[in-house]
Design a protein that fits this description.
Blueprint: H1 9-19, H2 27-33, E1 38-42, E2 45-48, E3 53-56, H3 59-62, H4 71-83, H5 96-108, E4 113-119, H6 122-139, E5 147-151, H7 160-165, H8 169-172, E6 182-185, H9 190-193, H10 199-217, E7 222-227, H11 243-254, E8 257-261, H12 275-278, E9 285-288, E10 300-305, H13 306-315, H14 329-344, H15 347-364, E11 372-378, E12 381-386, H16 401-412, E13 415-416, E14 418-420, E15 423-426, H17 434-455
Parallel strand pairs: 3-13, 5-6, 5-7, 7-8, 8-9
Antiparallel strand pairs: 1-2, 2-3, 4-10, 9-10, 11-12, 12-15, 14-15
Helix pairs in contact: 4-14, 5-14, 6-13, 10-11, 15-17, 16-17
The structure holds pyridoxal-5'-phosphate (PLP).
Residues 62, 121-123, 155-157, 228, 232-233, 261, 263-264, 287, 289, 300 line the site of pyridoxal-5'-phosphate.
């Protein structure tokens, strides 16, 4: 076997095309364009196999919260691999890093959430949650309560349960999803769907779709409501301020469990440890992954609130669910070190007090660009809406073309910004410094100019 270091870009691309099926990828198109090989990274920067330096405005896939190149995590993994590379958490067993990680997560989670179920990813976590909420209502003697209400254009992963809980139509179209027992209501996306309503009117309207759906199904059928605090993959959709308080009122009125998918918002992204704290939510379950290990190793989990944990534990009997890699000792050791760094280096405080106010102030200036209809964001999440008419919020005729063009301009100019349709989104590492934010925003402005030129506006 030759080491991958010896291969040049063309060789890697040829092998890739011959053997590698990528996630969410049109392989015919990829083969024609050639794969971009990312070789190394440091801080907030990536280097591709051609030696180009690229500012990673997406923190990988919303996950590299502490930035690239932290040798402490590599050391933690190395040490743990020598000591105990693997053991399961079934059959009365546990390992020290998994136990300590559960305890450390409980410390930063909302006060009523003190238990963690470990998984390998965000998708697996939502599969776990679907089974856990159904088990909960069975134990409560209400076996009819099985349906989970979710939102159109939400993202909850890509397994059968994850994609069903999510509300991505293009995913549902493949494989007869969603599975039974999962229904969707409109999203609180004012810029795209608010029409003539004010943001707050629209936020109330969107929240009340939950109440309408509960009444339509009958409360004795409804197990839970699942949502991201801020939709990530859907386009960094920050709900109007009227939205979450009304959702909370409705959930309390009907006694429905709240599942908050914190896979993106968790571990500091909003300037709080969790998005639930930013919006003052009281979840029964939280989905975690991504920033949990800063992406250095795959790991996910479910943080379980008192009400559900007490019921599962006190009732007794086995919850017949779990993964070979639940509580993997190496991933847990890396997660623990990641948490230590977030805490000791006061990275969440840095986001809240310095990085987020600065990023939000700087990206707000992009709203003056002729191509931009709205800029919004919270913490180190940002979205830029590309429009053909700033006043009417009208899009260009070919949906997504402006976004794709802008994204390609960004990469060609040393910046990773993702496009969701015609919405440009960003989610840089939490450790991004003010001068790196300046670079991100000036590159973004330049790419908006280049995109406008190409579009002829
Ligand atoms: C990425 C993501 C997931 C899925 O996580 P995977 O680790 O890719 O399975 C679930 N929910 C949200 C909100 C996500 O952003």
């Amino acid at each position: 076997m030759t080491s991958h270091k010896r291969l040049n870009t063309a060789q890697l691309q040829a092998m890739d095309t011959a053997h590698y099926l990528h996630p969410f990828t049109d392989h015919k198109a990829l083969g024609a364009r050639g794969t971009r090989i990312i070789e190394r990274a440091e801080g907030v920067y990536l280097w591709d196999s051609e030696g180009n330096r690229i500012l990673d405005g997406m923190a990988g896939l919303w996950c590299v919260n502490i930035g690239y190149g932290r040798s402490e995590l590599a050391d933690a993994a190395y040490k743990q691999m020598l000591e105990l590379p693997y053991y399961n958490s079934f059959f009365q067993c546990a390992n020290p890093p998994a136990v300590q990680l559960a305890s450390a997560i409980a410390e930063v989670a909302p006060a009523h959430m003190n238990h963690v179920f470990f998984t390998g990813s965000g998708s697996e976590s939502n599969d776990t949650i679907l089974r856990m909420v159904r088990r909960y209502w069975d134990l409560k003697g209400k076996p009819g309560k099985k349906t989970v209400i979710s939102r159109i254009n939400g993202y909850h992963g890509s397994t059968v349960a994850g994609a069903s809980l999510g509300g991505m139509q293009f995913m549902h179209e493949q494989g007869d999803l969603p599975i039974p027992g999962i229904v969707h209501i409109p999203q609180p996306y004012w810029f795209g769907e608010g029409g003539d309503m004010s943001p707050d009117e629209f936020g109330l309207w969107a929240a009340r779709q939950l109440e309408a759906k509960i009444q339509e199904l009958g409360v004795d059928q409804v197990a839970a409501f699942i949502a991201e605090p801020i939709q990530g993959a859907g386009g960094v959709i920050v709900p109007p301020s009227s939205y979450w308080p009304e959702i909370k009122r409705i959930l309390a009125k009907y006694d429905i469990l709240l599942i908050v998918d914190e896979v993106i918002c968790g571990f500091g992204r909003t300037g709080e440890w969790f998005g639930s704290q930013y919006f003052d939510l009281k979840p029964d379950l939280m989905t975690i992954a991504k920033g949990m290990t800063s992406g250095y190793l795959p790991m996910g989990g479910v943080i379980v609130g008192q009400r559900v944990a007490d019921t599962l534990i006190e009732h007794g009997g086995e919850f017949a669910h779990g993964y070979t890699y639940s509580g993997h000792p190496v991933a847990a050791a890396v997660g623990l070190e990641n948490l230590r760094i977030l805490r000791d280096e006061k990275i969440v405080e840095y986001v809240k007090q310095e990085a987020a106010p600065y990023l939000q102030e700087k990206i707000a200036q992009l709203a003056e660009h002729r191509l931009v209809g709205e800029v919004r964001g919270v913490g180190l999440l940002g979205a830029i809406e590309l429009v053909s008419n700033k006043q009417t919020r009208a899009r260009f005729a070919e949906k997504g073309a402006a976004g794709t063009l802008c994204r390609d301009m960004c990469v060609a100019n040393g910046l990773v910004m993702r496009a969701v349709g015609d919405t440009m989104i960003m989610s840089p590492p939490l450790v991004i410094r003010p001068e790196e934010i300046d670079e991100l925003v000036s590159k973004a402005w330049r790419c908006l100019d280049l995109t406008a030129e190409k579009l002829g506006v």
